[in-house]
Design goal:
The complex is a heterodimer of chains A (275) and B (205). Chain A is an alpha/beta fold and 275 residues long. Chain A is built from ten helices and ten strands. Chain A has two domains: 63 residues, no CATH class; 191 residues, Rossmann fold, CATH 3.40.50. Classes of the chains: A alpha/beta (275), B alpha/beta (205).
């Protein structure tokens, strides 16, 4: 009945982190150990591997690493998750940007793309979509392929519709997708100003200048040092007066960074770059 | 039955963290238990209760007002301290880092639950090993059973509310099926255990 195969110690986890860095060049050293350990043990359970098996397969089967990366990084997301956040984006951020000629949005750690399409829908409803471009990036190419297709489980659309309506929406979410069998396929017009691309927040740098950066429930997987490094990357990637959106558990805490941002919405962790 | 054997006394002496987990039907006893703890209670207390992300339960405010110990919502980067009650935040799993800071995680729900008892129990047992006392109460699903199993495997003291006392037996029964826990206790014995913790653990210090 018990599904725990082999207990992974924190020392063994460090070995695996080191091994992945050496063999694949992926640096997990700034990841939260509590969460990472749980994710790695989850892979061991799914595959019924001991610590020894896992290490040897990681070294000897490069194709396993793609699977490992997909399973170890958390890819849980929803469309219009935290409706009050999206409501505030509509009211405080998009209204502010309404006069801008170009609005570039970066959704960092976009996973399977639900939030990217959420932004797409909101920008369309505020008549800003034709002036906008959204970049969805993630460390993991597999989830980006999924995001590009824009096809979601129809069963999930009920929850997403509730979220959408609670976010101050004026229409029905079903206006934006085609339901076919058990799938909901996002309309192509909503995809035309979107680019999904691989970007690793740990190792990659600035690639454009944005009016909005949204990175929610990603920093919780990083240690304080890496969080700060990534927040500086966001700061450097924002235009003057650009907006930074973080997850509900990810308030800015670094004194130096706090000075550079104004709080737009404290509960939703929306900030504006002012210095 | 509550019999403090030398082995159990030893585990109580060493303990640094008390873990409490419940779901349906467990709220009242956990509330009574937490408000009964005195200012001398020597352990950090971490509480995981299944609750909806859409409704504020007001548990933190209620406990802070009625109880004797400080109450905090578990948050990323918060340092765990003895004599403080930490509640798992709605819609996130609550974990602990090797150096004793809390972390939150938005990974898949466990048995449809986030926060999940299994996740917190396993994470804390990983870090605190044999310095953990874990108690599982009433609940309508099997979350917590694996966490308790893991806590025992790591050397912690494991306790289950007697299913006869539990309003919903599924959770304590699942735990007892999976693990030969150290103690299966009636409600009043769980209160007594708290007193033993105060006496034995403070002696140790």
């Amino acid at each position: 009945m018990n599904t725990i195969v082999d207990i992974l110690s924190f020392d063994q986890l460090e070995d695996i982190v080191g091994l992945i860095q050496k063999v694949y060049g992926f640096n997990f050293s700034g990841y939260s150990r509590a969460s990472l350990k749980r994710r790695v043990m989850r892979v061991m359970q799914l595959k019924n591997y001991s610590v020894y098996d896992l290490k040897s397969i990681l070294v000897n089967q490069p194709e396993f690493f793609d699977y490992f990366l997909a399973e170890v990084t958390v890819n849980v997301t929803e469309m219009f998750r935290d409706p009050s956040f999206f409501k505030s984006v509509r009211e405080n951020v998009l209204a502010y940007l309404a006069s801008y000629q170009h609005i570039k949005v970066w959704n960092a750690g976009c996973s399977t793309g639900e939030e990217v399409y959420g932004f797409s829908i909101m920008l369309a409803e505020e008549n800003l979509y034709d002036r906008s471009f959204i970049y969805g990036t993630d460390i993991n190419p597999q989830v980006l392929d999924f995001a590009k297709r824009g096809i979601y489980d129809l069963k999930k659309m009920k929850l997403y519709s509730e979220n959408y309506l609670a976010s101050g929406a004026s229409r029905s979410l079903s206006d934006y997708y085609l339901a076919k069998y058990d799938a909901a396929s996002i309309h192509n017009e909503l995809k035309k100003n979107i680019l999904f691309s691989v970007h690793n927040l740990v190792s990659d740098g600035v690639f454009n200048e944005f009016q909005i950066i949204s990175c929610r429930n990603v920093l919780i997987y990083f240690n304080a040092e890496l969080q700060e490094k990534v927040l500086r990357l966001f700061y450097d990637s924002l235009c003057p007066l650009g907006f930074l959106c973080l997850g509900s558990k990810e308030a800015l805490r670094n004194d130096d960074l706090i000075k550079k941002f104004k709080v737009v919405n404290k509960a939703e962790n929306i900030y504006q770059k002012i210095a | 039955m509550l019999r403090i054997t030398p082995n159990i006394a030893n585990k109580i002496k060493k303990a640094e963290v008390l873990l409490l987990g419940c779901s349906a039907g467990g709220f009242n006893i956990i509330y009574d238990l937490l408000t009964s703890l005195t200012i001398t209670f020597p352990l950090a207390v971490i509480v995981v209760i299944h609750r909806s992300r859409n409704h504020k339960s007001g548990l933190e405010e209620l406990l802070a007002k009625k109880g004797n110990l400080p109450v905090k919502l578990g948050a990323h980067g918060l340092k765990m301290e003895r004599g403080v009650i930490y509640i798992a935040p709605p819609d996130y799993h609550l974990l602990i880092e090797p150096h004793g800071d809390f972390a939150v995680d938005y990974s898949e729900p466990v048995y449809y639950c986030r926060p999940a008892i299994d996740v917190t129990f396993e994470s804390v047992a990983d870090v605190y090993q044999d310095k953990v006392i874990a108690i599982l109460f009433s609940g309508a699903n099997e979350d917590g059973a694996e966490g308790l199993y893991y806590a025992k495997r790591q050397g912690g003291l494991t306790v289950v509310q007697d299913p006869e006392c539990a309003q919903v037996k599924t959770m304590p029964e699942a735990a007892i099926r999976m693990t030969k826990t150290h103690l299966v206790l009636k409600d009043e014995e769980i209160f007594k255990l708290m007193q033993h913790i105060v006496t034995l653990n403070n002696v140790h210090e």
